[in-house]
Amino acid sequence: MSNPSPARYHTTNWSSYNASLSKRGSLLIWVDEDITWRAPSPPPS
Fold first, then answer.
1. Which residues are CB-contacts of 11 (< 8 A; sequence separation ≥ 6)?
2. DSSP secondary structure string, 7-37?
3. Residue 39 to residues 36, 43, 45, Cα–Cα distance (Å)
4. Global confidence as pTM
5. Tens of pLDDT along 1-45?
6. CA-only gyration radius of the chain, Å
7. For residues 37 and 43, is the Cβ–Cβ distance under 8 A?
8. Interacting residues of 17 by C-beta distance below 8 A, sequence separation 6+
9. What is the per-residue pLDDT for 30?
10. Residue (of 19, 3, 22) closest to 11 by Cα position
């Protein structure tokens, strides 16, 4: 018995596909400079 061939997906809306590719790598993170992070102290041993 042979394995079934993998599914093939065809892109039909290239303008939308290309726009989504350029947006995919965009990640914007805002960090407020007034916020300080303090690590919790380790539990006593």
1. 17
2. P------HHHHHHHHHHHT-------TT---
3. 10, 12, 17
4. 0.35
5. 688 888 888 888 999 989 888 878 777 888 888 887 788 888 887
6. 24
7. no
8. 11
9. 85
10. 19
